[in-house]
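BUG: 3D viewer hangs when loading the predicted structure for this chain

Environment: internal workstation, default settings.
Expected: structure renders.
Actual: progress bar stalls at 90%.

Input used:
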Amino acid sequence: MDLIEETRNRLGPVGVWLPVGMFTPTPDEERRAIQRLEELGYRSVSGGGGPGNRELLAYSAITLAATDRVVIGTGIANMGSRPAYTAQSGGRTLAQAFPGRFVLGVGIGHQAAKTGSDYRPLEQTRKYLAAPSAAEAEFPSPIPFPRVLAAVGLKMLELAREMTDGAHPFAQPLEHTPYAREIVGPDKPLIPEHPVLLGDREEARVHVARTLELMKQYDIPHYFKGWKRLGYNDADIDGVSDRLVDELTAWGDEEKIAGRVKKLIDAGADTVLVNPVGDGPEAIVDQLERLAPALTAVIR
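Structure tokens produced before the viewer hung:
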């Protein structure tokens, strides 16, 4: 079995996406939560990064050591936070210590997170991916591990297909999945993040409105541009339309949310990383516990 097929099999159709540092300042609580997700049948957990949060590769080591089977991914390890060789070396170390249980997700991030005016995302990402690729060709990892790229738009999705083992889209509506699958082709894993909420549309609208406000605050226009390519307009975005809310967030009861995950898989996703909407760790873990029977029953 090659690395890509092994990655698909290990991740399974449903995983979890959690913000790093969600459980600070209680690391023990964090470890217990990941252990609980493993017990509930979730096969992978990806941790997001951000300003002031923990170092993602160190965090991955802690959660891998605290669990037995679950696959841990970085979603994403920002390219500006560590040199390419450092990320690759960290991945090699984790792959050797925990064979088959680590996925290195990397991404360029957005311009607001950069220092200075030098921001050429496509060129910089290509250069970043090429450095460890050349080293890997000369000194192959004793235990190979997958590397996936945060990708939303056409050029970045093409780069994911060309230079990595898969694509990890974030904050995208349902319609983005078939679009991304067509670009990355049939052979590379497609691993979208998707918010889920055991609640009604108005609760989901509050979440989407907060997300839009953050995107505007930090000047991240590429998400809006991408949504417009899929047929949304300024009225949808500025007015937080029902259509935008319904496609960006899977809301409702357990059956309805599981149905959305199945739609994403049918549209081309290999693994859907559900991102539970909630205020605080208890609300997030509670939702994942309630959703587990329906979500872990989802099959291709």
